[in-house]
UniProtKB/TrEMBL annotation:
Positions of PPR repeats: 307-341, 342-376, 413-447, 448-482, 483-517, 518-552, 553-587, 588-622, 623-657, 658-692, 693-723
PROSITE patterns, per database record: PPR
Keywords: Repeat
Protein name: Pentatricopeptide repeat-containing protein
Family: Belongs to the PPR family. P subfamily.
Ranges for region Disordered: 89-115
Length: 839
């Protein structure tokens, strides 16, 4: 059981003797050396409440521990007043921090309760954060007032830069052992936790940084940081905070970065602009530009002087968010306050210009950089080259290389050529990449197998398999042995052009060249077999994987499963999915849905339902779309009872149907004439807060109009329109009524369309006029046209001519004359044309 005052007990475990604090707590003493470890064993709820509600209780405890610190300074660390203040500590660490860890520090784990390292979670979600302090007010993205605090005459001390971790520190036995214990956190016992505490105190600050960097999951690193921060006789060094911030800056864990920054601010640890830059980048990665830029305001309020590094970070963030105009204003403001930009600053702007397709401005900036006090580097030119290659302007790349040598005296080196080869290959310019490859080799630069592999993969993607084979042979003749990546690209290229037999031969040749195919190689070959209709052979190779000493992955199984599905062998595909799940690989909802739809198309809806239920019971990620596909399959078979049953099963499986699901069932109910059930289901959909789609409107209108239930339709439409506006709802009603021959009902509700009198409404009126005309009722068409003229709408000219002629034939010359006169008044026809029509 973890108690709310554990932070205090952990900090004050080493005592020299009993004291009057026993009035409030019953202690168990355990002699260890010259110290007595005190562990609270029994505490009633009333005493705990007494402890927090009476401030004098805390004063006595503070005085008690202060006296201990004075008596035995050697055995007891020097506790600051900040560490004694329970309220401040609890507020800082959060109310949940006492849950994840044991309050005992016994290395043997005795009398300690089991805890789970993963219980130590990010606390920003649950605690009440000090938004005014951290978020910095309501400053907009374009407010750069923080630069006003820049003091050009202040002495800039050398601050903590990126913490470099040597390989020796990463391989240190203590670091490796702590990483091993962290990996075992799901099975932690008090003994393992005690070992981790003991090892933690032996770590040097750089080794703690190495532990944080060694974690594959940054969230685990953050949890370890929180956990270590709460341990007794351990205190994070300054560089550990910056190392943690650096790790978080590469992720979207912006709340964790903000919390670490809060630690720096509250604990009065020396702060440098780099810390705020890390938080800014993390917020930017998380998609929150406003809070990213507010980090600058927080820095100003913290009294930290901005420097060129934090300004470059701000420029990078603005450019990344396509705020080039803000970045240019930021640059102007930097120069006003006396911060001189460097090459990195201008490289950010060059990237911004290229992203905005303003390559001429980027080249102009490169030309102006020497006059601004800093010369462009190769990165400046590489950025523009990358844009030109992406835009297929490869001829200008050569000109830019010559400009780089002539204007900036930057000689193309091996890195330049390798960079160009990779960029050209990535965007499908294999021939140009070969040209630079030849040029690099003529100048004595060595292009390794990675560069060759990039070009070979480009040729294979384009189907130029002969060019790819030629490069492979060239590599072998030069002693550059291709690796598995190179061979895999060629195998995939053979499969793309349908030469699967040659891909198999190449797979065997790999062994003779000392290169063992991996899972990706076999997956590429299996994909080729499946696309050529040999899914059964692919399945046999998959079954022989253990004998061939390769391990299939989820993608491998998916490739073969889709091959069976395309060939119509759905039973084999479902069996393969079951085998896939047994091996620990789970199909995605998209893959499950493709199989369900294929089964439904073959009228095997019950098999589709059974397959979906198996996937759901075995832990696969079955979603609403999968249920909807099954429901739609039952609706297509007119098995509405089964469809409604699956709809009920969705709620039992905690899968909430969406508007598409309801639309499928409503349409099927309407098709069967079960209008009352369809209406109730539509109301249920609206009651659940779902917004009807355009398809929903079309389905409801079609089925209700088909059955002539117009009044019920209009009442339902009013409810639907109150949730989601549909401009053409009533237009669809009238047009559907016309298609079903219910013209009187359509004319009755024509006023709902003529309220807005738009072009869409004119088309609807024309449909009604033509329907009356086809029924041989030109007088009604004339009435519709008159109502259109009254709303300043012009009916179709050719249609009016037909109506006029029909009216003349029926002896209604006055109506025919008025109709044509209206058109003359609107300047649609000439008086002479009117006479010709009437004659």
């Amino acid at each position: 059981m973890f108690l709310n005052f554990n932070p205090l007990i952990r900090k004050r475990k080493t005592l020299v003797g009993p004291h009057t604090i026993e009035v409030f707590f019953q202690f168990h003493t355990c002699i260890s050396g010259n110290a007595v470890e005190c562990i609270g064993k029994e505490l009633t709820f009333g005493l705990r409440s007494h402890f927090y509600t009476h401030p004098w209780t805390r004063m006595i405890i503070t005085a008690f521990f202060s006296s201990l610190s004075t008596r035995n300074p050697k055995s007891t660390p020097n506790f600051s007043s900040e560490s004694v203040d329970i309220d401040a500590r609890n507020k800082e660490m959060g109310s949940k921090e006492t849950r994840g860890l044991s309050s005992y520090d016994s290395p043997t784990g005795e009398n300690a309760e089991s805890c789970n390292f993963d219980d130590v979670d990010e606390l920003e979600e649950s605690e009440v954060e000090e938004e005014r302090e951290i978020e910095g007010g309501n400053d907009s993205v374009g407010d750069f007032r923080f630069l006003n605090s820049f003091n050009r005459h202040s002495q800039q001390n050398k601050y903590i830069s990126r913490v470099e971790i040597d390989e020796d520190e990463l391989r240190h036995p203590l670091v490796k052992e702590i990483c091993r214990l962290i990996d075992l956190r799901s099975a932690w016992t008090p003994k393992l936790e005690g070992e981790l505490r003991h090892l933690l105190r032996s770590l040097k600050p750089r080794q703690v940084c190495a532990v944080l960097r060694a974690q594959a999951d940054e969230r685990v690193a953050l949890k370890f940081f929180y956990w270590a921060d709460r341990q007794w006789r351990y205190k994070h060094d300054q560089i550990v905070y910056y190392a943690m911030l650096e790790v978080l800056s590469k992720t979207k864990l912006c709340q964790g970065a903000k919390r670490v920054l809060r630690f720096l601010l509250r604990r009065k640890i020396e702060r440098w602009p780099e810390a705020f830059g890390y938080v800014m980048v993390s917020f930017s990665r998380a998609g929150n530009l406003r809070k990213a830029m507010q980090s600058l305001t927080v820095m100003q309020k913290a009294g930290v002087n901005p420097d060129l590094g934090i300004c470059n970070t701000a420029m990078y963030v603005l450019v990344k968010w396509n705020r080039l105009d803000k970045a240019l204003k930021f640059l102007e403001r930097m120069q006003v306050v006396g911060i001189s930009p460097n090459t990195v600053t201008y490289n950010c702007l060059i990237k911004g210009y290229c992203d905005a397709h303003r390559v001429d401005d980027a080249l102009e900036l490169i030309a102006e950089m020497p006059f601004k006090g800093c010369s462009p580097d190769k990165v400046s030119y590489y950025t523009v080259m990358s844009f030109l290659i992406k835009e297929k302007r490869t001829k200008e790349v050569r000109q830019l290389m010559e400009k780089m040598l002539k204007d900036s005296n930057l000689l193309p080196d091996q890195v330049t050529y390798i960079t160009l080869i990779h960029m050209l290959s990535k965007h499908g310019h294999g021939d140009e990449a070969v040209t630079f490859l030849r040029e690099a080799e003529e100048r004595g630069f060595y292009i390794d197998k990675v560069g060759y592999s990039a070009i070979i993969n480009s040729f294979c993607q384009e189907g130029k398999i002969d060019r790819a084979k030629g490069l492979v042979n060239e590599m072998l003749s030069k002693g550059c042995i291709p690796d598995v990546v190179t061979y895999t690209a060629v195998v995939d290229g053979f499969c793309r052009v349908g030469k699967v037999d040659q891909a198999k031969k190449l797979l065997q040749q790999m062994y003779s060249h000392g290169c063992k195919p991996n899972t990706v190689t076999y997956t590429a070959l299996l994909n080729g077999l499946c696309h050529n209709g040999n899914s059964s052979e692919a399945k046999e190779m998959l079954s022989m994987s253990e004998e061939e000493w390769w391990t299939p992955n989820a993608i491998t199984y998916s490739v073969v499963m889709h091959g069976f599905r395309r060939e119509g062998k759905l039973s084999e595909a479902c069996d393969l999915v079951r085998e896939m799940i047994r091996k620990g690989f789970f199909p995605t909802p998209v893959e499950i849905n493709l199989l369900i739809q294929s089964l439904c198309r073959e009228s095997r809806v019950n098999d589709a339902k059974k397959f979906m239920e198996e996937c759901l019971n075995r832990g696969c990620a079955v979603n609403v779309v999968n249920f909807t596909s099954v429901i739609h399959g039952f609706c297509q078979k007119d098995d509405l009872d089964s469809a409604l049953s699956v709809l009920d099963d969705m709620y039992l499986s905690n899968k909430h149907p969406d508007a598409v699901t309801y639309t499928a069932v409503i349409d099927a109910l309407g098709k069967k004439g079960r209008i009352e059930e369809a209406t109730e289901l539509a109301k249920k959909m609206l009651h659940r807060g779902l917004i009807p789609t355009q398809v929903t409107y079309r389905a409801v209108i079609h089925r209700f109009c088909q059955l002539g239930r117009v009044d019920e339709l209009l009442r339902l439409l009013e409810k639907m329109l109150s949730r989601q506006e549909c401009r053409t709802a009533y237009n669809q009603v009238i047009e559907k009524l016309c298609s079903f021959g219910n013209l009187d009902e359509a004319y009755k509700h024509l006023g709902k369309v003529l309220r807005t009198a738009s072009r869409i409404d004119a088309n609807t009126c024309n449909v009604l006029m033509e329907s009356y005309l086809s029924k041989g009722i030109p007088l009604s068409s004339y009435k519709v046209a008159c109502r259109m003229f009254n709303r300043n709408l012009i009916p179709d000219l050719k249609l009016c001519e037909k109506v006029s002629k029909r009216l003349m034939l029926e002896g209604k010359e006055d109506e025919a004359d008025k109709l044509m006169l209206r058109l003359v008044e609107r300047a649609r026809i000439s008086p002479q044309h009117r006479q010709d029509v009437q004659s």
